[in-house]
Specification:
single chain, Immunoglobulin-like, Glucose Permease (Domain IIA), eight-stranded antiparallel sheet, four-stranded antiparallel sheet, 3 helices
Length: about 280
């Protein structure tokens, strides 16, 4: 723990950046800031500061719990440090959180049917409608505190696809993969990795087939794709470890697996593997 006397800004920044990696706490008089997580591309970061403080990330105000918890993260392509500004009792405290770049693999899949690479034109209206539904489900907001739980694996199986990998389908470069794929036989149980409330539960989306989205509070949500069974309904309150569905190959899947995704809101896509224990 640092001295109680307030540190000069440059010294505080340097020491905060070091302590971030150690999961420690920075204090200055009655101000403190703790940040949990790996500051790398795709990371979810959970901060805590003084109750009643105002928090801005890169000049954007974010929601804070009554006891000072907040979340933010780094996207797949983020290369710039995040600026964290805390206003507590009319005093501003600022630091930066650097991001470490990662080497993401390239995945080449050949021999796919043309319809698996680019959807037919007649399906685009349906696709746009379903994408709007997903966006709406990820916009759900609540003051749940499930984001503070230690997440568990949502299914047993082999990791067959990783976040951030670049996919080349039949020689055509596609967007990076934003999920963690867990391969197992159709019918394998899928469970909630943390508590939450279901905001989407459908069986037949064009791309993703059986799809569930769960809100974990303060903008953090998780998505489960290609399910053969959907065992929950919109509005259901789910406990960690509770079965929500079964692995399948519905939608545009090439084999039975769970594609699991983590988002903050609608646009910040994070790496699920960074928030669960290694196996």
């Amino acid at each position: 723990m640092l001295e109680s006397q307030f540190l000069p800004l440059k010294m505080m920044i340097a020491r905060i950046c070091l302590l971030l990696l150690l999961g420690s706490t920075v204090q200055a008089e009655d101000y403190f800031l703790t940040i949990k997580g790996q500051p790398v591309q795709g990371a979810l970061l959970i901060g805590q500061t003084n109750a009643g403080a105002t928090v801005k990330i890169d000049d954007q105000k974010i929601a804070v719990t009554d006891d000072g918890y907040f979340i933010f993260g780094f996207g797949r392509f983020d290369e710039q440090a995040k600026t964290v500004n805390i206003n507590h009792q009319n005093h501003n405290y600022q630091t930066t959180v650097p991001v470490t770049a990662r080497n993401f693999p390239t995945e080449v899949i050949n021999g796919l049917p043309k319809s698996k690479v680019n959807p037919p034109q007649q399906d685009w209206e349906r696709i746009k409608k379903e994408q709007a539904q997903v966006k709406s489900a990820r916009q759900a907001w609540s003051e749940q505190r499930a984001f503070l739980q230690d997440f568990i694996w949502p299914a047993e199986g082999r990791v067959s696809g990783v976040y951030g990998s670049r996919r080349i389908l039949n020689g055509e470069p596609k967007r990076p993969h934003y999920g963690m794929d867990i391969a197992n036989k159709t019918g394998t149980d899928v469970v909630a990795p943390a508590d939450g409330v279901v905001t989407m539960a459908v069986t037949d989306h064009f791309y993703t087939g059986g799809t569930i989205i769960i809100d974990h509070g303060y903008g953090l949500n998780s998505t489960y794709l290609h399910l053969s069974q959907v065992n929950v309904e919109v509005g259901s309150s789910i406990k960690q470890g509770e079965k929500i569905g079964e692995i399948g190959a519905t939608g545009r899947a090439t084999g039975p697996h769970l594609d699991w995704r983590i988002n903050i809101g609608t646009s910040l896509r994070l790496d699920p593997q960074l928030i669960i224990p290694e196996k």
